[in-house]
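Thread: "does anyone have the structure for this chain?"

Original post by V.I.:
We have the sequence but no experimental structure in hand. Need at least a predicted one for the grant figures.
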Amino acid sequence: MAHIDYYLGTISPWCYLAGDRLERIAKEHKATVTYKPVDLMQLFPRTGGLKPADRHESRLDYRMQELTRWAAYLKVPFNLRPAHFPVNMAPSSYVVIAAQAAGEGDIGALVRGFLRAVWAENRDVSDDAVIRDVLAANGFDPAIADKGLFVGAEQYGRNLEDAVAAGVFGAPFYVVRETGQKFWGQDRLTFLADHLATA
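Reply from O.Q.:
Generated one for you, tokens below.
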């Protein structure tokens, strides 16, 4: 059985556009997934990239065009300029990690809930009330926001180190543990599916 490490940012528009395709692919190929939220603003400069705010205007302009195109192609609601972006990813990331460690519930749905809150609902996922609401809306106990956050914070830091060690430099990024094959971007999910079918 294949195992996929999914490196993500809880405010990444590209992770939002990935939707539930990873989960559907994993189910089809009987693969398991570990969700690994990372601090993208630290990951980018550590792996030769730039934070979005530091990128050249031409890159930012193209990014906006691509986001608009992909949202239209995938037929998903998308606010190109959300009211709360960027915000601190740590609180929502801690909650994802704590919920996963608890071993209950649909972590993929929880991740998508945070991403949808940013890119379709104009909500601030660094706000405690929003975090609790997203937990509840996706079948989790809102009290997770109070539990395991020290462990979440520690794992969040480890996820960054794991990402750098694994050759991850953006999000969404998928690494198949058994083969070491890496797939960067929601537009590479078809390649991931093909790899799992033949691995």
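V.I.: this helps a lot. The radius of gyration is 16 Å.
O.Q.: and The chain has nine helices and four strands.
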